[in-house]
């Protein structure tokens, strides 16, 4: 049980003036009571957190990551997507092993938690090793295996077998630990055959899990799919039934036609906007104001550490809140509340979570900020600071009712050991 006393509750991004000092009770993994500051009767045995000069917000949810890629930080800068992937990243990924993946995941979880992220939606390889790391950290995640067959029949068969094993592992892990959730992850229309995409869809539907896929990241890939099928990527996948009756998290969606926009809306697809990765790889800028105008669900992601190069979602929040104003030459588009909702409650909906807001009955996935932080002063307009000025350094993080970061220190890992293992893993990868 955790009782948080006298804390500024950032639970209303639309009406920040209504955010007020409150007491909060957490029992097991849930927020069970929220009341005016001073009104909470503290149950015996509760861990008490004094919230004076502190604020509490819903933990951030990163809807597009490749978490073990923290080990790739800085290895292939300043390249366009296809060159970056084909000539640099994939050759290195051929050298991955369980230890590198474990080390990268531990480092990624630490970075995310220390910058206020409580959950992430991932696509990668060596899923068992990721599960092992995430379980030890006590972080919430939705994991998918990145399916790629490059239209090769033999590869397709082996990918389908791997996918079956991974889903089994994930379901077993979920039964043991509710923080681990499964998804299916066909990598992209340009790396998956129609058969593999349909197979992934059928599995997602059968197992009632989301699909995680890269869509319309660059003009080049769209041209490729158009030449092959006569259709744009969203049109092609829609014709295959890939978006039917499942939750789809489509990463990037940078270049989308009007007809594709209609598919996004009709099929209730969740966009994972990754502004910093799109800028760094020179892919373009997604039409977020148009998505918002059309009531398309937008969430936020960082992408992996070879294209961002960090996992600090507050940086993506600021990028999202500013870039589109510049592109449109209109400072009224993408408002603070809209972008903060993308990183919290919209993401929660996309992944079928019970978090992203601070309400009684919701999961206790919460972040406490020390208001004695230069980027949060003056201590007025804190909700605005979250979008425009905060450096992302958080004080305490609670995931599923458990304190995983306390006064800036991880409680679930030996930080020095994680740094050491990550350095070792990097050398094994590049040498
Ligand atoms: C899972 C695979 O996805 C690769 N990847 C990482 N970032 C991107 C991106 O922005 N677009 C396409 N593919 C990406 C990763 O290296 C794995 O191979
Ligand atoms: Zn990606």
Automatic annotation (TrEMBL):
Pfam families: Amidohydro_1. It is an enzyme of class 3 (hydrolase). InterPro entries: Amidohydro-rel, Deaminase_MtaD/DadD, Metal-dep_hydrolase_composite, Metal_Hydrolase, MTA/SAH_deaminase. One of its GO terms (molecular function) is metal ion binding. It catalyses: 5'-deoxyadenosine + H2O + H(+) = 5'-deoxyinosine + NH4(+); adenosine + H2O + H(+) = inosine + NH4(+); S-adenosyl-L-homocysteine + H2O + H(+) = S-inosyl-L-homocysteine + NH4(+); S-methyl-5'-thioadenosine + H2O + H(+) = S-methyl-5'-thioinosine + NH4(+). Binds 1 zinc ion per subunit. Substrate binds at residues 93, 187, 217, 303. Zn(2+) binds at residues 64, 66, 214, 303. Its EC number is 3.5.4.41, 3.5.4.31, 3.5.4.4, 3.5.4.28. GO terms for biological process: S-adenosylmethionine biosynthetic process. Pathway: Amino-acid biosynthesis; S-adenosyl-L-methionine biosynthesis. Residues 56-404 form the Amidohydrolase-related domain. The keyword Metal-binding applies. Keywords: Hydrolase, Metal-binding, Zinc. It comes from the Archaea. Its cofactor is Zn(2+). Belongs to the metallo-dependent hydrolases superfamily. MTA/SAH deaminase family. SAH is a product of SAM methyltransferases and is known to be a feedback inhibitor of these enzymes. As a result of this inhibition, organisms have evolved efficient enzymes to metabolize SAH via different pathways. The pathway found in methanogens differs from the canonical pathway, it uses the deamination of S-adenosyl-L-homocysteine to form S-inosyl-L-homocysteine for the regeneration of SAM from S-adenosyl-L-homocysteine. 5'-deoxyadenosine is a radical SAM enzyme reaction product which strongly inhibits radical SAM enzymes. Catalyzes the deamination of three SAM-derived enzymatic products, namely 5'-deoxyadenosine, S-adenosyl-L-homocysteine, and 5'-methylthioadenosine, to produce the inosine analogs. Can also deaminate adenosine. The preferred substrate for this enzyme is 5'-deoxyadenosine, but all these substrates are efficiently deaminated. Likely functions in a S-adenosyl-L-methionine (SAM) recycling pathway from S-adenosyl-L-homocysteine (SAH) produced from SAM-dependent methylation reactions. This is 5'-deoxyadenosine deaminase. It comes from Methanococcus voltae (strain ATCC BAA-1334 / A3).
